[in-house]
């Protein structure tokens, strides 16, 4: 009986997301939310203080103010969401293209001609590009809508329940901090997700047929089976076909997953050439 040949693989350089893109995105989202929060908190507290002193209707004045601010920032977030989302995904697309070209050059050898196009946005690459932009637009706009829902609730609780200005100030500070934290989380998670989605479609476009799971480093949400080596039942260093997902070994869960797909997963793909 003939012996089965041992499978051999050649690993390319891992496709590592550009930390600069994530930092830029986080800064932009934070600035957008911070501007909204600072103005809203200042004007809401000013009306609460001055109108109450004059004996006017605080509730009526606050309602007028909040409607005005909600409309103003709704328009601003709508415009900025598309602009920032497209810019972030474009930056990640360029980063993926450069990293993939470098790894293909590594496969071919220094000085070799690389005929594969790694920057054309067509087919699945285009679909993934548009999907990432759409997802980020929705998330950015939700920062605005969620913020004002919580602020309005705090304002009218302070008035109707007579909680007072101190209570209102604390609530506004808390909701502002929550929104900034959520903006940072969106930037961290979505910039990575966009990179991974484009990595998959660009590798497929370049004719690379396999990828290897590579753990992306420590975070507060590390999943043990992402770190655990494939030889020990985990996902790290496991090899899969492009277009196929890895099997989630979590007990009681039967699903396919990809690097970066789960919330705050920082794992990534590594291009592979496999010889049977």
| Low-confidence blocks of residues | none
Q: What Rg, in angstroms, do the CA atoms define?
A: 24 Å
Arrangement of strands in the largest sheet: 1-6-2-3
Described by the principal axes of the CA atoms, the overall outline is elongated
Please describe the topology of this protein.
Layout: E1 8-11, H1 19-54, H2 58-108, H3 123-160, H4 165-205, E2 210-214, H5 224-227, E3 239-241, E4 246-247, E5 256-257, E6 268-275
Antiparallel strand pairs: 1-6, 2-3, 2-6, 4-5
Helix pairs in contact: 1-2, 1-3, 1-4, 2-3, 2-4, 3-4
Short structural summary:
This protein is of the alpha+beta class and 276 residues long.
Outline the structure in words.
- The protein is an alpha+beta fold and 276 residues long.
- The strands form two sheets. Strands 1-6-2-3 form a four-stranded antiparallel beta sheet, with helices on one face. It has a two-stranded antiparallel ribbon with strand order 4-5.
- Strand 4 and strand 5 form a beta hairpin.
Comma- or semicolon-separated keywords:
single chain; 276 residues; alpha+beta; 2 domains; two-stranded antiparallel ribbon; 5 helices; 9% strand
